[in-house]
Amino acid sequence: HERQVRVRARLAALLPELRVVAREDAAGAGLDEASMVIALGGDNHFIYVSHLLTRAPLLGINADRVRSHGGLLKLDERHLEETAESLRAGWAHVDHWPRLSAVVDGRRLPPALSEIYIGERERKHMSRHVLTSGRRHEEHKSSGLLVATEAGSTGWYGHYGRPFKGVAARWVLTEPFPRGRRLSLGTGVLDDRRTLRIRSLSDSDAIVASVSLEEAALPFARTVEISVLRRYLKVVRVEGL
Description:
Elements: H1 2-14, E1 37-41, H2 43-50, E2 58-62, E3 75-76, H3 80-89, E4 92-97, E5 100-104, E6 107-108, E7 115-120, E8 127-133, E9 136-142, E10 144-149, E11 169-174, E12 187-190, E13 195-200, E14 206-210, E15 214-217, E16 223-228, E17 233-238
Parallel strand pairs: 1-2, 2-3
Antiparallel strand pairs: 4-17, 5-6, 5-16, 7-10, 7-14, 8-9, 8-13, 10-11, 11-12, 13-16, 14-15
């Protein structure tokens, strides 16, 4: 905590025009009206802030590399001075990262920057669903379904498929049952033109979880639709760092 407070103070001194907002106040702080938002924390904080933004570009800085891996963050507290100089000089680029949308019975969950999980809350229970993609549909039994973006492909998804680039998202069925069964929709690519439709056949406590930020119940016969958001997240990349 003390290290992170010192990093925040250093950054505020380098960029005095910054307005500092605590995480617990972020949802009502009008972040999307800012010219740029800096998420000072780890991956979890970066992902949390990202779901509050539709227009403002986001720069992630790992505030404490000792305690946080920061796999999505290229910058940490060692780069504060260089980052401030580069931003003032205009040496920055904006990349566009895809995010996922999940709609459950008309309710839209927060945008998912890394992954969406569909399955039983307790994965010791069998998850069952019918997955529809285009004109194809298939019934599945497994420990759950993961839909991941490129940003999420090195995390949870990476245990079941290789990290990927060049496509908006992929899905994978985790621990399908029975083992060895050939599936046509056990894995696949999700792009801007396609929607995945999952109808639950689970009979215990199935959920849809958007990067563990928010959950929605998915009881028997309820449906969730997963798609790629048309508006990608704007992520700031500092040149040379």
